[in-house]
Design a protein that fits this description.
Elements: H1 2-31, H2 37-43, H3 49-64, H4 69-89, H5 95-111, H6 151-168, H7 172-180
């Protein structure tokens, strides 16, 4: 299993290295004014080409740094989506940008599978339970707590308890002291 995971990680690094390298080269050309002026005028991007180049460089760097690769994946996807929209609006082919977008996401799937964790369906019993710093008994984050109740049930119960305290005129501290005694 570890060898299989290692192969996927290496393949993801190779794909992200390819995309990151392309973006760094193209972004540098835009920032330093090496992008052909006739192409810039054809696309209608005269002034903001340096800003687009800076965004491209930042996205590529974030994609290649392991700690920020999830954010880089998101920003790089937005960059490629913008490039696709720009070429579509000018009635130009956008196949290359679409392929780069697919390579970016496939590399992300191989290299950072945790970035796709929100797309998976997990049963409640398999989800990780964490203790809340405020209430160690609350195993929160929408999961059943120590009492076995869901977050909504605990919130309803808490609102009922607060309502009954207000009606009886006792404060929360008094009821907590009564419970501990």
């Amino acid at each position: 299993m570890k060898a299989n995971r290692n192969w996927k990680t290496i393949a993801g690094w190779v794909l992200h290295g390819l995309i990151g390298g392309i973006m760094i080269l193209a972004g540098s050309a835009k920032v330093f004014g090496l992008f052909p002026p006739e192409e810039v005028a054809k696309l209608g991007l005269s002034l903001p080409i340096q800003v687009i180049g800076l965004g491209e460089l930042a996205s590529a760097i974030l994609l290649l740094i392991p700690r920020t690769s999830s954010l880089g994946l998101l920003l790089t996807s937005g960059f490629w989506g913008g490039a696709i929209c720009l070429h579509m609006s000018k009635a130009e082919p956008f196949v290359v940008q679409s392929v780069f977008l697919l390579i970016t996401w496939f590399g992300g799937y191989l290299r950072v599978p945790g970035a796709f964790g929100s797309f998976t369906i997990r049963s409640e019993s398999k989800q990780v339970r964490r203790c809340s710093p405020r209430n160690p008994g609350d195993r929160g984050l929408g999961l059943a707590g120590a009492s076995g109740r869901s977050r909504e049930q605990r919130a309803w119960h808490l609102s009922e308890e607060i309502g009954s305290r207000e009606a009886s005129g006792s404060s929360g501290r008094e009821s907590a002291q009564r419970r501990s005694a």
